[in-house]
TrEMBL record:
Protein origin, superkingdom: Bacteria
Pfam families attached to this UniProt entry: DUF3896 (PF13035)
Taxonomic lineage of the native organism: Bacteria, Bacillati, Bacillota, Bacilli, Bacillales
Species the sequence originates in: Mesobacillus campisalis
InterPro entries, sorted: DUF3896
Protein name: DUF3896 domain-containing protein
Length: 62
């Protein structure tokens, strides 16, 4: 099943939003917050890569 760019981006953004919502929990430990922050950074990067791939803005190898 092939997904288009918007479907992929929507799914990634939904996961990112879920992580942001989890960050709002005042009962999280420092370690849990750090892990969530790393996951957020990873998803932001994945979204950026998906955009680059969709708009063909990456370095192409010969």
């Amino acid at each position: 099943m092939k997904m288009d760019h918007l479907e992929i981006k929507e799914k990634l953004e939904a996961i990112k939003q879920d992580l942001l919502n989890k960050m709002e929990n005042p009962d999280l430990s420092s370690e849990e917050k750090a892990n969530l922050q790393l996951s957020l950074m990873n998803y932001e990067y994945i979204i950026e890569l998906a955009d680059m791939n969709h708009f063909e803005r990456g370095t192409r190898l010969p």
